[in-house]
TrEMBL record:
Belongs to the TPP enzyme family. PROSITE patterns: TPP_ENZYMES (PS00187). One of its GO terms (molecular function) is acetolactate synthase activity. This is Acetolactate synthase. It comes from Prauserella flavalba.
Length: 552
C-alpha cells in the first residue's frame, strides 16, 4: 500500500470524511487514497481557504478537520489558517508536501523548512520519515490536537515517502477508537465543593460561558447550571447561543455592569486576553473563578481565587450537583440581582433601538445587523467575517441555537467567512448558513465563492459595504487627524451583487434600509450561494471600534 493510501486510512480511522485542499504534485497520492476510502475532496482556490475550512469543520462537527496542501508556497499560504486555529483552540491537521528524501538539502522544487516554520503555531509538527510510519504518525498528530485545549497539528510528508508502497504487514495502521484516551476531566473534587460553597453564599454571581462550552459540547450542563442555581449568564465566542435569546438568564448588554458589581464571577473557557481587558475589567472586590481545559490559561494575566482545569460540561455538572445538595443553594435570594441586571440590559437596548430601526440613508450599520438578527431562525448558523461591521453585529446578533455562531476568534483573522461557510454547509447541509462580511474581509478569500457554487453549497451572504477598512480608518483619524484618515484603507466601490451573479450565484445591491429584509428573503429562496451587497454609512463606527485602546 502506498503512503497516500495509508494517510487516507488513518484519516478514515479518525472519522474524517472530507479534506479541503489545493492540488500539487507532492500530494496527489493522498487524493487517490481518499477516493478508495470514501473521503470527499473539496478543492479550493487558495490554501488559506483550505486551512480555514478545516478549522471551521472542526468547530461545527466536533471532529478534527483536515487540510492538505502542497510543499513550499502551498504550505506557507496555509500558515494563517493554522495560526487562527491555534488561537481559537480548534483541532485540525494540516498535511503539507515536501521534496523527496533522496533530494534532501539539494534544493528540490518548493523545498522549505516547513516543520521549523510550523512548530511555534501548532501543538505538534513533524516530518514523516518512512512510508511504514505514515498512518502511525498521522494518528500521533491527531492525538496531540487534543492535548489540553484543542489545537492544530502539522505533518510534512516527503514525496517519495508518500508515493512508495510497503507490505501491509510492515505498516502500523492504528485501529479506529483505540489510539486516544479520554481527555475529559471533572477537576479536583475538593475544588468542586469549594466552588459550590462560593455559589451558595454569593448574592450577586455571574458566569461568562466562553468558546470551550461549545468545544466541550457542554450546552446542557451550562443550562442546568444557570437555571438550577439562578445565575445570570453572558456568552462570548462559540459559547454564544448556549442560551436562547429570550431565556431569563441570558444577558448581553449588561456585562460591564455585572463585572463591576458582582461578588462572584465565574469565567468558563475564556482566557484573560484583550477581549477581557487582560482581566482588568473584573471588579477587584469580586471573587473570581476560572474554569479551563488548559492549565496554562488559568490565572494568566490576572490572579484568580480558584482555578479548575477540566472539561466545562463535567465541571459545571459536578458543581450543580454539589450545590443542589445543600439545604439552600442560594438561588431564591438572587432574584433581585437578576432583576437589577435585567433593568440595565433593557435600558441599554432601548437606548440603541432607534438606531436599529433607523431609516437613514446611507444605511446605519445598526439597522443592517438588526435586520439580520430578525432574519435568523433557530436553524441559522451565523458567521461573522470583518472588522467594524462585525463589531456592530456582536452587540446585536444573537444566535438562536448552540453552536450557531462562528467568528475568527482571538487572532482576529479577516477572510474566514467563505471557508467557514464552506465547512458549515458541507458539515450541516440541513442548516441555513448566514454570513456577514465586511467588504475588505470578503475580498481576501472571496474568489472561493466560486467553490461554493461548484460544490452546490448555498448560503445567504451579506456584505456591509463602506468601501473602506473602516476599523483602521477610524484609528488613523484619531491618531493623525481627518486629513490623513484615508491613507492605505480606502477600497473601490465594488458591486459584489454583480460579482456573485458573475460566478453563478445570486446577488443584489441594496441602498435603502427598507429593501434589506426583502433582499435577504429572495436570497433564501434562490437556493444558491448569494451576496446581498448593502451600502452602509462609512462615517459611522461601532462603539467597540471607538473604544479600542490601540487608537488612544
Amino acid at each position: 500500500m502506498s503512503g497516500g493510501h495509508l494517510v487516507a486510512k488513518a484519516l478514515k480511522a479518525e472519522g474524517v470524511d472530507v479534506i479541503f485542499t489545493l492540488c500539487g504534485g507532492h500530494i496527489i497520492d493522498i487524493y487517490d487514497g481518499c477516493v478508495d476510502e470514501g473521503i470527499d475532496v473539496i478543492d479550493v482556490r487558495h490554501e488559506q481557504v483550505a486551512a480555514h475550512a478545516a478549522d471551521g469543520y472542526a468547530r461545527v462537527t466536533g471532529k478534527p478537520g483536515c487540510a492538505v496542501v502542497t510543499a513550499g508556497p502551498g504550505t506557507t499560504d496555509a500558515v494563517t489558517g493554522v495560526a487562527n486555529a491555534l488561537r481559537a483552540e480548534s483541532p485540525m491537521l494540516l498535511i503539507g508536501g515536501q521534496g523527496a528524501l533522496t533530494q534532501h538539502k539539494m534544493g528540490s522544487l518548493q523545498d522549505l523548512p516547513h516543520v521549523d516554520m510550523m512548530a511555534p503555531i501548532t501543538k505538534f509538527a513533524a516530518t514523516v520519515p518512512a512510508t511504514e510510519r505514515v498512518a502511525d504518525i498521522v494518528t500521533m498528530a491527531f492525538r496531540e490536537c487534543y492535548h489540553g485545549a484543542p489545537g492544530p497539528s502539522f505533518l510534512e510528508i516527503p514525496r517519495d515517502v508518500l508515493d512508495a508502497k510497503v507490505p501491509l504487514e510492515k505498516a502500523r495502521i492504528p485501529k479506529a477508537g483505540a489510539f486516544r484516551a479520554s481527555t475529559r476531566s471533572a477537576g479536583d473534587p475538593a475544588d468542586i465543593e469549594r466552588l459550590a460553597d462560593l455559589i451558595v453564599k454569593a448574592e450577586k454571581p455571574c458566569v461568562l460561558l466562553g468558546s470551550q462550552v461549545w468545544t466541550c459540547r457542554a450546552t446542557d450542563a451550562a443550562i442546568e447550571f444557570v437555571r438550577t442555581l439562578n445565575v445570570p449568564a453572558f456568552m462570548n465566542g462559540s459559547g454564544r447561543g448556549t442560551l436562547a435569546p429570550k431565556d431569563p438568564h441570558h444577558l448581553q448588554l449588561a456585562r460591564r455592569y455585572a463585572f463591576q458589581n458582582a461578588d462572584l464571577i465565574i469565567i468558563v473557557g475564556t482566557p484573560f486576553d484583550f477581549r477581557m481587558g487582560y482581566g482588568k475589567r473584573l471588579s477587584t472586590e469580586a471573587t473570581v473563578v476560572q474554569i479551563d481545559l488548559d492549565y496554562r490559561t488559568v490565572g494568566k494575566n490576572r490572579d484568580v481565587d480558584l482555578g479548575i482545569v477540566g472539561d466545562a460540561g463535567l465541571v459545571l455538572s459536578a458543581v450543580t450537583q454539589a450545590a443542589s445538595g445543600r439545604v439552600d443553594n442560594g438561588s431564591t435570594g438572587r432574584k433581585a440581582w437578576l432583576e437589577e441586571l435585567r433593568a440595565v440590559e433593557t435600558a441599554a437596548y432601548e437606548k440603541r433601538l432607534p438606531r436599529q430601526l433607523s431609516d437613514s440613508n446611507p444605511i446605519d450599520p445598526y439597522r443592517l445587523v438588526h435586520e439580520i438578527n430578525e432574519f435568523l431562525t433557530p436553524n441559522s448558523i451565523y458567521i461573522g467575517d470583518g472588522g467594524d461591521i462585525v463589531t456592530f453585529s456582536g452587540q446585536v446578533v444573537q444566535p438562536k441555537s448552540p453552536g450557531h455562531w462562528m467568528d475568527p476568534g482571538p487572532l482576529g483573522t479577516l477572510g474566514v467567512g467563505v471557508p467557514f461557510v464552506m465547512a458549515a454547509k458541507y458539515a450541516r447541509p440541513d442548516a441555513e448558513v448566514v454570513a456577514l462580511f465586511g467588504d475588505g474581509a470578503f475580498s481576501l478569500t472571496g474568489w472561493d465563492f466560486e467553490t461554493l457554487v461548484r460544490f452546490n453549497l448555498p448560503f445567504i451572504g451579506i456584505i456591509g459595504n463602506n468601501s473602506s477598512m473602516n476599523q483602521i480608518r477610524y484609528g488613523q483619524i484619531q491618531k493623525y487627524g481627518e486629513g490623513r484618515g484615508r491613507v492605505g484603507n480606502t477600497l473601490g466601490d465594488v458591486p459584489y451583487g454583480e460579482f456573485a451573479r458573475m460566478l453563478g450565484g445570486y446577488g443584489e445591491e441594496v441602498r435603502d434600509p427598507a429593501d434589506i429584509r426583502p433582499a435577504l428573503e429572495r436570497a433564501r429562496e434562490s437556493g444558491k450561494p448569494s451576496l446581498i451587497n448593502v451600502w452602509v454609512d462609512p462615517d459611522v463606527y461601532a462603539p467597540g471600534t471607538m473604544n479600542q485602546t490601540m487608537y488612544k
